[in-house]
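1st attempt posting a full record on here, be nice pls
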Amino acid sequence: MSTHKVGPDSTVLADCLEVPGIGFLPVNAFVLHSEQPVVVDTGLGLPDRDFLNTLGSVIDPADVRWIWLTHPDRDHTGGLFTLLEAAPRARLVTTFLGAGIMSTEHPLPMDRVYFLNPGQSLDVGDRTLHAFRPPLFDNPATVGFYDDRSHTCFSSDCFGGPMPTADVATGTDVAAVHAEELEAAQLLWASVDSPWVQLVDRDRFLATVEPLRAMAPETILCTHLPPAVGLASRFIDTLGAAPGLSPFTGPDQAALEQMLAGFEPGGPA
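the predicted structure (as tokens):
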């Protein structure tokens, strides 16, 4: 993992995973340096990752006051329980459904849980965080937010896309990717992460996009994309192409066996 600042208020804890045949998927967590500091998601739980150590290079975990979990998928919860231990004054922001999902793996300290639904807001001292459900999501407990001081949208999985290299995936600015390539990556990710979008009524879907357009964020921080500054209008237009996308279909067993054979001595090159 690596870290870099996005403006004066946010730090990205950047990581990625290689997805064979697709590219390198960013897997970010964030620190919002508000009066009451907020950690947004907690990265991967793989044995070679040390989320808490990386976070400690940015902020003393004991100073964290809020842990905003955009949803309880495993690529968002890797360091959650170690962080809860290291940040005894922090409260976990999630939903009733999110808490239920997490409780199937590990008991939650319910006295430290803070339920927040889309349409509600959270005061973190020097700013207000406005919760919303992103137009694209892969988990029904998903809640992103808009920071009304830094004009930053934390969009969870929405707007994500695989990148061509690990360096680009963990980079400081998604503008390094050509606009057409970026749009194609975002639509591919929509077909992977939100396959239900094939079935939606286009007008009803676009109505869920309008709050983002009204929000007009200056910066978009997405779990699965490098930071995007000044690209909100373009990204929102890309969402308009999502309804009707064919869901992604991955390799089948025959393809897996062929890939595995390539790793064996004497297998195909």
